[in-house]
């Protein structure tokens, strides 16, 4: 099964190299030329030795110097073609890895939010960065050493057969033992490299989590526990790496031992032939050179096999990510924002994050265009889940959601999400200028439109106080800004985009009371004529809603206006009384 999996990975890898066939042909040509000149060196060396054997006074030093010069020239030419082969091999390798990384990144854009929620970020990063780099190293060894190794074996075999078939047969029979040793070790190192790759992913995940949550770590004095967890993960990686590297490192000395045995046998057999006049001293020198060149590729190829085992493990982890099931295919018929009226209907929808833990069952909500719908209830009742379903971050397990009578599955996610303006309790900002972050919802907006949106969200004041105003560069996640300022920028995006529908999930939770009153007034203007969904915990902010949905355990247990629900004296009345008693 393991071999079959390895073959599938190799076939998959070859599909990525097909587009670089021309470059691969050049690699083969350069490898052939490099090997040809390197194989010519023992011939020249043997001739030089034969020129030195007649004895003192009979040596033609001019001929010896000429032969030595030819050796130097052949070595330089071989090195030059080796350099060209390595350069083209690098080009192929890193382009293939780039293509694989691009496919992995494209797949991440297509994966469902549920997949990203259920898989560790650090492990995904490890696959795309560390595993891809390890895979590149193995692939590069394949291009630079495998090609030259195979050609060297074939070339030396031809030359040795011409010099002495009997000694050649001796070399050919013994040398493959190094490959058998390498294969024996490689089959045992595969599982160890897999464990090493997983341990590396765990360490990357833990490191990413600890760095991104450093404030929380220090707030709760979790430093010692974090250090302990890191040391445990680091030790696990260390142990896995030591085992994998130790087993794989046995390949080189084991194959070198076999090669040394071959070299010794060639020397002994060749000396016997030379004493009998069957071969000249120069011929024996050339044969020993070829025997060394013949056995060296077996040693290199065995190293390549071991390294390639590691590379295939890493490639398999990347391919697993690429092969993950994408979200449901997009609809072909586009919908523009100005075509949306805003009638939203949730029809008998079922949904659960975990199949064994039902959350929403048989949910029915009918919202007319322009209505302001507030969703309230205790933590975990499904308020934010409804928002996730409306935006198609998750797909319903049953039932359907329609906009203007059309199933949202028939609308592409991009078109659907362009129809909503969304402000969450959690903010999201990217590295760039303040203006760039506001323009995210409308990239072609003018500076005047950006400023007008910021004024509408009451963000203009603090932006002007920054060092470079709207051109101030902020870091990832809005480093340097307060939580309230970051939320004002997110609100500015919605004010700029002016979508036909709104989703506000505790949109003013991090803003001071005075500014909140101003933003609520701005939101009131913005919501006029727009279907709006408001998730709120502070019930005072939703008194003016056209309909309030009261949720509990995934069901809408009450609905009506603020005054109607208070008069009913039900669960909403309990929530309101608990907040304002």
Topology:
Elements (H helix, E strand, L loop, with lengths): L1 H16 L3 H32 L8 H50 L2 H6 L2 H43 L1 H10 L2 H36 L1 H6 L3 H27 L1 H25 L5 H42 L21 E8 L8 E8 L4 E5 L6 H8 L7 E6 L2 E2 L5 H6 L1 E4 L8 E2 H5 L8 H10 L3 H5 L8 E2 L8 H15 L3 E5 L7 H15 L3 E5 L11 E6 L2 E6 L1 H7 L2 H10 L1
Parallel strand pairs: 3-10, 3-11, 6-9, 9-10
Antiparallel strand pairs: 1-2, 1-4, 4-5, 7-8, 11-12
Helix pairs in contact: 1-11, 2-3, 2-5, 2-11, 3-5, 3-11, 5-6, 5-7, 5-11, 6-10, 7-9, 7-10, 7-11, 10-11, 15-17
Write structural notes for this entry.
With 581 residues, the protein is α/β, with parallel strands linked by helices. The strands form three sheets. It has a six-stranded mixed beta sheet, sandwiched between helices. Strands 2-1-4-5 form a four-stranded antiparallel beta sheet, with no helix packed on it. It contains 20 helices and twelve strands. The chain has helices spanning 2-17, 21-52, 61-110, 113-118, 121-163, 165-174, 177-212, 214-219, 223-249, 251-275, 281-322, 383-390, 413-418, 434-438, 447-456, 460-464, 483-497, 513-527, 562-568, 571-580; strands at residues 344-351, 360-367, 372-376, 398-403, 406-407, 420-423, 432-433, 473-474, 501-505, 531-535, 547-552, 555-560. The protein is 64% helix and 10% strand. The longest helix has 50 residues, at 61-110. The model has no long low-confidence stretch (mean pLDDT 79). It has two domains: 2-322, Up-down Bundle (ABC transporter transmembrane region fold); 337-580, P-loop containing nucleotide triphosphate hydrolases (Rossmann fold, 3-Layer(aba) Sandwich), CATH 3.40.50. It is elongated, with a radius of gyration of 36 Å.
């Amino acid at each position: 099964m393991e071999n079959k999996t390895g073959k599938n990975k190799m076939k998959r890898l070859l599909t990525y190299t097909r587009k670089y066939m021309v470059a691969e042909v050049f690699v083969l040509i350069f490898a052939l030329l490099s090997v040809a000149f390197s194989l010519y060196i023992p011939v020249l060396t043997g001739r030089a030795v034969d020129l030195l054997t007649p004895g003192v006074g009979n040596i033609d030093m001019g001929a010896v110097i000429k032969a030595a010069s030819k050796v130097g020239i052949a070595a330089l030419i071989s090195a030059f073609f080796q350099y060209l082969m390595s350069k083209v091999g690098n080009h192929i390798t890193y382009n293939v890895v780039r293509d694989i990384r691009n496919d992995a990144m494209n797949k991440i854009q297509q994966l469902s939010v549920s997949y990203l929620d259920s898989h560790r970020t650090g492990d995904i990063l490890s696959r795309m960065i560390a595993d891809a780099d390890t895979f590149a190293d193995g692939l590069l060894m394949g291009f630079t050493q495998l090609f030259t190794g195979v050609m060297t074996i074939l070339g030396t075999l031809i030359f040795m057969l011409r010099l002495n078939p009997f000694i050649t047969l001796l070399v050919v029979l013994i040398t493959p033992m190094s490959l058998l040793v390498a294969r024996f070790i490689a089959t045992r190192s595969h599982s160890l490299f897999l464990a090493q790759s997983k341990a590396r992913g765990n360490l990357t995940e833990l490191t990413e989590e600890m760095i991104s949550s450093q404030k929380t770590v220090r707030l709760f004095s979790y430093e010692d526990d974090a250090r302990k967890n890191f040391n445990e993960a680091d030790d696990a990686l260390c142990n896995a790496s030591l085992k994998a590297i130790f087993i794989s490192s046995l390949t080189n000395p084991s194959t070198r031992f076999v090669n040394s045995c071959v070299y010794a046998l060639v020397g002994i057999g060749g000396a016997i032939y030379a004493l009998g006049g069957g071969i000249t001293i120069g011929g024996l020198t050339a044969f020993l050179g070829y025997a060394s060149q013949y056995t060296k590729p077996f040693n290199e190829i065995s190293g390549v096999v071991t390294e390639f085992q590691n590379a295939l493990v890493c490639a398999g982890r990347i391919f697993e990510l690429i092969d993950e099931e994408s979200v449901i295919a997009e609809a072909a018929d586009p919908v523009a924002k100005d075509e949306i009226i805003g009638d939203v209907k949730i029809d008998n929808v079922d949904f659960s994050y975990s199949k064994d833990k039902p959350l929403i069952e048989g949910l029915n909500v009918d919202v007319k265009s322009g209505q302001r719908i507030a969703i309230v209830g205790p933590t975990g009742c499904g308020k934010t889940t409804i928002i996730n379903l409306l935006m198609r971050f998750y797909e319903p397990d049953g039932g359907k959601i329609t906009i203007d009578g059309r199933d949202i599955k028939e609308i592409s996610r991009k078109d659907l999400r362009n129809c909503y303006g969304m402000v969450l309790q959690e903010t999201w900002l990217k590295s760039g200028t303040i203006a760039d972050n506001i323009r995210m919802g409308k990239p072609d907006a003018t500076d005047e439109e950006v400023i007008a949106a910021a004024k509408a969200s009451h963000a203009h004041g603090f932006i002007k106080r920054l060092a470079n105003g709207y051109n101030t560069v902020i870091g990832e996640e809005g480093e340097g800004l307060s939580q309230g300022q970051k939320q004002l920028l997110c609100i500015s995006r919605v004010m700029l985009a002016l979508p036909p529908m709104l989703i506000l999930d505790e949109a003013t939770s991090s803003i001071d009371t005075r500014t909140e009153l101003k933003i609520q007034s701005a939101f009131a203007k913005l919501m006029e004529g727009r279907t709006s969904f408001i998730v709120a915990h502070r019930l005072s902010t939703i008194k003016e809603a056209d309909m309030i949905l009261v949720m509990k355990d995934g069901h809408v247990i009450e609905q009506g206006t603020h005054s109607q629900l208070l008069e009913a004296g039900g669960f909403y009345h309990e929530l309101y009384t608990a907040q304002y008693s």
